[in-house]
Batch of 2 targets.
Target 1
Amino acid sequence: MPRLRTVLLVAGTALVARRAMRRRIQASPLWPMPALDEPISGRPRARALRLLLTRHETVADGVAQLRLEGQALPAWEPGAHLDLVLPSGLIRQYSLCGDPEDTSSYTVATRLVEDGRGGSREVHEQLQEGMEIEVRGPRNRFPLAPDAPSYVFVAGGIGITPILPMLRALDARGADWHLLYGGRTRASMPFLEEVEKLGGERGRVTVVAEDADGRPDLAGLFADRAPGTAVYCCGPEGLMEAVAAALPGHCELHLERFAPHTSADGNGPFEVELRRSGRTVAVPAGTSVLAAVRAEVPSVSYSCEQGFCGTCQQRVLEGEIDHRDELLTDSERDDSMLICVSRARGERLVLDL
Ligand code: FES
């Protein structure tokens, strides 16, 4: 009998312990989700490479150019960008502005943003020649249309970086192109000499330095353009909005943003139900869904926090989405969102998380 009592006691204790453990697991923010080493969307992360920083030089006021060397580097096409994983862990995207034929190095350039979020300052002040830098990509969300009848480019300051390889490629094949390149001063505009040389005597390049020339004449730039002209613009948000407003209906606009598109309205609070984990989080005004969700689910996947990489894509089960990214396709927008930038149109969203 004492032996039977002991067996029953051990079995009962094990059962209680098992139930307690199960309750703790179910209360965990990870239950019943799998570990989130990979994005829940299944969107693959770009391959990572470690490259040697062999050149870090100033090429215009406040603009640093970096040369990163490796071997047999993945190919890229004009318009592509790299993710740089900075020593602090910040990830920033920079357009490739070197030669796509060069498979031993990548070249990027970045402007120091005094009141930015720290990425450009780290590039300018912490990175040094001889350091190894992790990069991911290249990826291209700003590709050059192969067969437009003519091309018009509008670059604002550092926005020249994705456009420069496009100009070289178009010039090499004798395509019809024109560039309007604007900046605060000539000294602040990187690659100005090369750009003017590319334009040559043919009047293909119009340089507008604001301190000397004032505002660019966009209406004049678009006057008499042929139907189907491909217009590429990269620069500050205000410039891109002005180009979109001045664009004739028969031209095709392509935009490259260095910062997430922001909406003046619709930044108010709402709540997000995480259906699989059985929780609801409040998203205050001015806080991203990602930040609110991370407080409950620290392992949720994310990377750029700017709506560029797609790592934070989540399926949406209910609610109307206010999409604020430039990445997702129309069909992806039907039932998913990038939670680092996009918000709810109403008071509530339900995520499959
Ligand atoms: S974290 Fe990169 S798109 Fe959201």
Note: The CA atoms of residues 316 and 351 lie 5 Å apart.
Target 2
Amino acid sequence: MESLPSLVPLPAAAAIPADGPPCHRCVALCCRYYALEIDAPEDEDDFEQIKWYLIHGKSWVFVDDGDWFLQVEEDCRFLGPRNECQIYDKRPKICREYGMPEHLESPDEPLCDYFTRTDRHDLEFRTMDELDSYAKVTLARREAQRARRSAAASEAWARRKRARRAR
Ligand code: SF4
Ligand code: SF4
């Protein structure tokens, strides 16, 4: 991912405005990408699918609280040279609502990307190799869990069988 554009320093928490984000101090961070939730990978084929996303130059994948997202770094085509929206009156609903306190799911949530731009996600994958390493470990762990559960089920079944015979 490209490094973040330089911005004025983050304001102290107390200085975060209650009435909306400080767009006049920002370089339109939220207009420079889109992100879509994707299915969490369950098996090798699912990881292969995500690898395909990652081979495209401006795409990367992140995970927060177990939810997986594909992010594509691409400026909105209506973003103007001074970081202004050129279709302000017609901008989509998601743009109109983003960063407005009344649309937050919880009051603790940061208003917008301006306040989270230095944060990291729980997991971030930018290359096939990064995802591959994670997939190998994860799938091996799941396989081991499956094997343990299967062994435990067989053992329980054998115990019940012995108990029936002993009656
Ligand atoms: S990231 Fe926040 S401050 Fe920056 S343009 Fe978007 S809503 Fe405004
Ligand atoms: S339509 Fe306007 S507010 Fe929405 S992403 Fe594009 S430039 Fe930003």
Note: The first strand starts at residue 33 and ends at 38.
